[in-house]
Amino acid sequence: MELLTILNHCHRHRGFVYEHARFGADKTRIDVDVRPRQGSAAVCSGCHQPAPGYDHLPERAFEFIPLWGVLVFLQYRMRRVACRQCGVVVEEVPWSDGKHQLTRAYMLFLARWARKLSWKETAETFHTSWDKVRDAVEYVVEWGLAHRTLAPIRAIGVDEIQYAKGHKYLTLVYQIDQGITRLLWVGKERTIESFWTSSGSAAPRHCTSSTASTSSPK
Ligand SMILES: [Zn+2]
Question: Which of 104, 121, 138, 151 is the right S-S partner for 186, CB 3.0 to 4.6 Å?
Fold first, then answer.
């Protein structure tokens, strides 16, 4: 079975095709070329509507889930579109949010493992960096926040993780209601007050940084 057949089975996107897979020079990575399917229009990242093409950006590598310990990258030249509404903007691609080097599939994969292992263990297991695991968890949490309501939360826990050298901290906010534990927010160099601002909620009277629990659920 060929790698492209597996990719088409697990990670197929309308409007794009996998063209060619090859080892990188040192055989530690596999590069998979992606190109737009013939006749399929690019989608504007501003208004999410098809738009006429404008030009191409240089080829970019999007990191995918590693296979048998070998790093996998999707190689794609993103198109820019001339959208009547948004002007000249880069296209939207289904495998990436455009901001991260990691594909959505890889960020979901890492974030799922980061619920079972520590972030450090997750990074070591998949030969990636702690920063990428943090980005993945942050992405998934932000996606969750944008698609969920915070209304029923009755109890939160706040934890701080030190990272890098010096006094740099990540603030993690968990929902710790009975029967549910979920990570709600990851804040880099931010405070619990900015969690309430970013979530569009007012801090409850009985739940401020000084009164919130500082224990972190496992
Ligand atoms: Zn547009």
Answer: 138
